[in-house]
Design brief:
single chain, about 0% strand
């Protein structure tokens, strides 16, 4: 799944933390979100991502590109520290998302049950924050993200994404769609 997330990140500007939030918030105990509430929940995370995560990631990538200027131990140490900081900033973003969702909805998912139908709906709400049009490969990757995250088949995931207008329609038995 890491390759899928990286492709979507590069192609659409997907924030993996928000994509995972879409999966987590598909728990049947979580409040059903409309566009306004979804936007209010993700706004602080998007601001954090732009102000903190992306510059930290850029610094890490810049160091990686310039590693030849330092000795092996020096370059490895700097790169590792930046990677650790980047991971911590990503974790902080997850906390921001969870707190924002709780503040906006007064609910919190319990347990690990997820609904691929609700997750596809959440991804559709997130779509307006992504750049560019969805290609066939993007749809396939979103289907993979949804199928793995919600433990369903790729066909069901793609059909549910199509139901929310994200991907071309696919025919799947109705009994399989609302899992």
């Amino acid at each position: 799944m890491p390759e899928v997330c990286l492709r979507l990140q590069d192609a659409l500007g997907l924030d993996v933390n928000i994509a995972f939030f879409c999966l987590w918030w598909s728990n049947p105990e979580a409040a059903l979100l409309d566009q306004e509430r979804f936007d209010a929940i993700v706004r602080p995370a998007i601001e954090w991502h732009k102000a903190v995560v992306l510059p930290t990631r850029a610094a890490r990538k810049a160091v990686k590109a310039e590693l030849t200027r330092l000795s092996g131990d020096e370059s490895t140490g700097v790169y590792r520290k930046l990677l650790e900081i980047e991971i911590e900033t990503e974790h902080a973003e997850q906390i921001i998302l969870a707190r924002s969702a709780e503040e906006q909805t007064r609910t919190r998912p319990r347990g690990s049950e997820v609904s691929s139908h609700r997750a596809a709906r959440n991804i559709a709400l997130y779509r307006r924050h992504l750049t560019g049009g969805l290609t066939a490969k993007d749809c396939e990757d979103l289907g993979t993200l949804l199928s793995i995250g919600c433990r369903t088949t790729q066909d069901v995931a793609l059909s549910q994404l199509a139901e929310w207008g994200l991907c071309p329609s696919r025919r799947v038995e109705d009994s399989q769609l609302h899992t």
